[in-house]
């Protein structure tokens, strides 16, 4: 129910709302949201979810203008660090908290601890810029060697084997990776480690593990580098590939057909995951070796980090209201149109139940 109609929205780093009193009235019905009357909810972190967060905030503001929302897309590592310092109400990350991360939240979450709430899913697209080459197919082992600078020309036999009809140029391969600590990087590292075996001898870390290549901070900058560099290949969320019209790799998984990144194929991949967290922590574990038909294997889920108990009382009602909306059926339905994959309803329902118990 749209209970409150006054206030402002801030989208730090993503573009801001228009506070003008002459702003045109929204068209169509207001979103169906149980609004908090007031409060400020500050978040920061994952760049992977910044486009989803922007949409959610815009929709929430239509009904709940008395609440001020701020999200600064600094990257997952910074999002966790800011939350641990008490600078934000929630953190956004593409990797569930480690035991050490949780321990460092106990001073902020007075009498409790932080928990992970999955909120938006999607594929990590592998985008490339190779003139004359479309519908490129790669597998985990070949991707691992490309990103580790062991395949250095686009006409390498391993790439040609997977693309027998393609006219691959004798062009240098330019891998582009994230310079900042990133949950997107962690999820790609985890996929390569899980699916490529000995071809990727590195840990599933937020820090880039492969050798060589170029670097850029944030998914936006990585995708820009790919568009500007012939021979480049990089990784970022599908929304960035769609925004810049970047060709994306289809992944050979052992299924009958290579799988392209899409919201639907990512949802199939996410549905293969299981909840690995304990109690109210809803961290997920993925099957990176899945060969299920239509399942895109390089997926991430962005988590909102919140205190299970010990949240700031002045922001708690607004936090619960906002996260109840983002995990609702209406909030999740917003994701398809902006290239994210909604959570399976079984997971979203658990998120809403946990949000209702935050204190």
By CATH, the topology of the domain at 124-270 is: D-Maltodextrin-Binding Protein, domain 2
Residues in helices, as a percent range: 25-40%
Number of distinct helices: 12
Mean pLDDT: 89
Main sheet overview: 9 strands, mixed
Task: Look at the structure and give the CATH class of the domain at 124-270.
Answer: Alpha Beta
CATH architecture of the domain at 124-270: 3-Layer(aba) Sandwich
CATH superfamily of the domain at 124-270: Periplasmic binding protein-like II
Class by alpha and beta content? alpha/beta
Strand segment tally:
13
* Low confidence ranges: 1-26
Primary descriptors:
359 residues; alpha/beta; D-Maltodextrin-Binding Protein, domain 2; 9-stranded mixed beta sheet; two-stranded parallel ribbon; 12 helices; 31% helix
């Amino acid at each position: 129910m749209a209970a409150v109609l006054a206030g402002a929205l801030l989208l730090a780093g993503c573009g801001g709302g228009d506070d003008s009193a002459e702003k045109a009235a929204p068209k169509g019905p207001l979103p169906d949201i149980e609004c908090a009357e007031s409060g400020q909810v500050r978040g920061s972190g994952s760049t992977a979810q910044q486009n989803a967060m922007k949409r959610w905030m815009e929709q929430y503001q239509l009904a709940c203008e008395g609440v001020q929302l701020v999200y600064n897309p600094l990257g997952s590592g910074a999002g966790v660090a800011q939350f641990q310092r008490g600078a934000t109400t929630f953190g956004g990350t593409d990797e569930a908290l480690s035991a050490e991360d949780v321990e460092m939240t106990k001073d902020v979450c007075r009498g409790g601890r932080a928990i992970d709430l999955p909120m938006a899913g999607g594929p990590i697209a592998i985008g490339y810029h190779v003139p004359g080459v479309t519908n490129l197919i790669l597998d985990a082992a070949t991707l691992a060697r490309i990103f580790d600078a062991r395949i250095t020309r686009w006409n390498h036999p391993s790439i040609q084997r997977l693309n027998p009809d393609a006219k691959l140029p004798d062009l240098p391969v330019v891998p582009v990776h994230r310079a900042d600590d990133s949950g997107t990087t962690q999820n790609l590292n985890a996929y390569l480690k899980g699916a490529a075996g000995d071809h990727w001898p590195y840990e599933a870390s937020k820090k880039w593990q492969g050798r060589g290549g170029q670097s850029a901070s944030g998914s936006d900058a990585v995708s820009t580098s790919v568009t500007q560099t012939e021979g480049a290949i990089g990784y970022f969320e599908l929304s960035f590939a769609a925004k810049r019209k970047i060709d994306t790799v289809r992944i050979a998984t052992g299924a009958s057909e290579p799988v392209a990144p899409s919201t639907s194929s990512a949802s199939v991949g996410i549905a293969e995951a299981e909840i690995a967290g304990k109690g109210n922590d809803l961290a997920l574990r993925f099957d990176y070796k899945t060969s299920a038909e239509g399942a895109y294997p390089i997926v991430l889920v962005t988590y909102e980090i919140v205190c299970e108990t010990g949240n700031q009382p002045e922001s708690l009602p607004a936090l619960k209201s906002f996260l109840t909306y983002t995990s609702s059926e209406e909030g999740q339905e917003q994701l398809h149109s902006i290239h994210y994959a909604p959570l399976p309803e079984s997971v979203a329902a658990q998120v809403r139940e946990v949000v209702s118990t935050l204190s």
